[in-house]
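Readers of this paper often ask what the protein records in our data store actually look like. An entry from our holdings is shown next, in its original layout:
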Amino acid sequence: MVTFILVSRDCHNATTYASSGNRGIIQKNMEDPDGKSDFGTYHAPAGRADHEEILKSYDQLAANEMIALITDAMPDVAVILNGQRQVVYSNKMLMNLIGDAPLKAALGSRPGEFLNCLNAGNAPSGCGTGISCRYCGAVNAILECQRTGQQSQSECRISSHSKQADLAYDLLVTAKPFRYAESDYIILTIKDISDQKRRRMLERMFFHDVLNTASGLNGMLLALKEASGNEELSEYIDIAGKASNDLIEELLAQRALAAAENGDLQINVTRCSNLQLIHDVAAYLSHHEIAEGKRILVDPFSHAVQIETDPQLLKRVLLNLVKNALEASQPGDNITMGSKIGDTSVRFWVNNPGRMSEEVQSQIFQRSFSTKGAERGIGSYSVKLLTTKYLKGSVEFTSDERYGTTFQVELPLGI
């Protein structure tokens, strides 16, 4: 659901009331959190336009065919609010939200009121005027935009109650100033991000619980190996331990990718050796099943340097590049990796003898594209995401018949 709301500051008095008046209310509430202001509010201005004024605004807006054409073409709710945050116009989608009631049933209400917000019902003067409203992203985005004349964005959570069901909304609201017909408005977009928030929560729970289980299994295998005197049993435990380590590595990689896409990934910058990272990646993947019949070589002329970066993220980037090279190679092929130092940067490279087709080259960094089948297209995509957004570097490739395919990741010596 995306809601488009226009908030009008249609007179000088209303503008002054919403800005300077609100600062007085906030100041008074900071001094006395339990003391209601003289305006009947704990937060936003409480005053409302009378019904005749609302109808006048509605008639003016409804007479503009372009407004009706644009708002009714929207697949989601679109309403227009006056300077007191009351509905003065709406598209047809709002009627679906409030149960096919006539538009005039919603005129004069505020967003939290037509959404049946529990806090709006408990506020002294309706939506925006309660103590809890101080922490509402929707009303705060409007007030901030009115105060600064600049775009404002915030998340908003609304608990709603109706005869049909209790609902919980997670919304992303963006308020942006807009002027029309010699009147100032605020275009407020409200996007329902409930599904995204639930998915992120489930992802965090999944990675937390499964990583704990995998780590516990790994610990049990180590204990069994130490307690066992049977050589054959120890060999099987070694195999199971390696599988457990691979599982943990894959889970950590997927968790990092999910956090990176959500913008929640925290980097941990430390000083590390570029060559040590290369050798660690080569040693780890040399015993991986995808390396069977192939060799991973480290260029002996690679440059050595200490760099300041997130070594775990960089290792994941290199692991993905080498995995992709191995999967694109044939038995007997050599995959070579190395590094070269510039004046202010270090360049890592991974080469395999195969050539990518033009179709693959044009789509290699797209999220869902893969040469290995459906639901596999995240390797090269994650390399670019982690490199450019978090490691402050760049990634590029060349591919031809003579030299094969080479991916190069260039990073600053320090971030």
Summary: The two ends are 39 Å apart (CA to CA). Residues 197-262 form one domain. The chain has a mean pLDDT of 78. The first strand starts at residue 2 and ends at 9.
